[in-house]
Amino acid sequence: MPAEPGSEERQAYSRTLADPPESIVENGKFVLGCFNGPPGVVNMLDVHKPYHYPVPRWIKDFRCKEWLAFQFGDKRWFFFTTLYEAKSLGLARFSAWDRERGRILDFKRLIPFGRFGIGERLEGKTISYRDHRSAISYRFDLSGGSMSVKASRARRGRSPGFAGSFSFTYNSRQTAASAVCMPLGLNRAMYSTKVLMPMQGWFEIGGERIEFASPDAMGIVDDHKGYYPYHMRYDWVSGFGQDAKGRRVGFNLTDNQVRDQKTYNENVL
Q: Cα–chain-centroid distance for residue 151?
C-alpha cells in the first residue's frame, strides 16, 4: 500500500547551543547564534549602520521593537501578559482563561508612544503599567533566583475585577533557557531569550482565591527585541506541560522574517 503524500520520515533536526556572549553587539556588529543562556547585556542600539546609511541613536531606538511576555498556568488556568513597546504604540495586556468554566478575563490598553521601562538588562528591573482601573508589573531579581508578575483590574459593569500575584523560580537546576540572535538583513537582527520555569502564586476573582503550587504550575518568559521591517510578519506558538514522568516540558515554534531559518531560528523543545 503506497504511503500517503508527505508521510515520509523526516530527518531529526538538531543544533548546537553555544555559550552566550557578554553583549549581543560587539564592535558595532551583532553576535549571531543560538545560545544556552541570556547574554550579559542586550545593547541593540550600539549596532553600526543597521540600514544603508548611518542613523542617529534615537532613530535606532524608534525602529527597535521591544517586548516582554509571560505565559503561564496549570491544568485549569492559562495566563498571558505582555508589555510591548512598538515605539509608535505601546501595548499592555493581561489575559486569563479558565478552562474548567470556559471563561476569559482580559484587559488591553493601547498607549500612543507608550514606554514601560524596558532596557538593556533585566537584572534588578521593575517594568510596569498602571492606570486608574488596571495595573501590570514585572520584577526581575535574577541574582536572587526569581521573576514575578502582578496584575489587577477593577470591576466594571458586569465584568468582574480580579487580581493576581505570580512568582517564577530562576536557577540553573530548575529552569531551562534558550537565547538567539538572528539576522534580518543588512546589519539588523532580532534577539530573544525564553526560559521555562516552575511557578507559584495566587489569583482572585469574584470572592474565589486560586492557589498555584502544584508541579503542573509553570510558565515561560520571552524577552524580545528586533529591528523588524516596516511590514512585520511573525507567526509564533509556545506551550508547556508535563510529560509521562511528570517533568516540565516546553516548546517554541516560530516563522518570521529571519534570514536562513535552517541555521537561525527560535524553534526549541
A: 17
167 vs 171: CA distance, rounded Å: 13
Give the confidence band of 191 by pLDDT, cuts at 50, 70, 90. Answer: very high
Which of 20, 25, 26 is CA-nearest to residue 39?
A: 20
Per the domain annotation, does 268 fall within a domain?
A: no
Q: What is the Cα–Cα distance from 134 to 161, expressed in whole angstroms?
A: 9
Residue 209: which pLDDT band, with cuts at 50, 70 and 90? very high
Residue 51 lies in a domain: yes
65 Cβ contact list (under 8 Å, min separation 6): 84, 85, 86, 87, 224, 225, 226, 227, 228, 232
How far apart (Å, rounded) are the C-alpha atoms in residues 56 and 78? Answer: 42
Grouping H, G, I as helix, E, B as strand and the rest as coil, residue 63 is helix
Structure letter (DSSP) for residue 231: S
Q: Tell me the residue type at 90.
A: G
Which residue type is seen at 231?
H
Domain presence at residue 207 = yes
Q: Which domain holds residue 86?
A: 25-255
Maximum alpha-carbon separation in the chain: 66
Beta strands in 186-247 (DSSP E): 188-205, 208-212, 218-226, 235-242
**Percentages (nearest 5) of helix, strand, coil residues in the chain:** 5, 50, 45
**What pLDDT, on a 0 to 100 scale, did the predictor assign at position 12?**
65
Half-sphere exposure of 235 (CA within 13 A, CB side): 2
Q: How many domains does the chain have?
A: 1
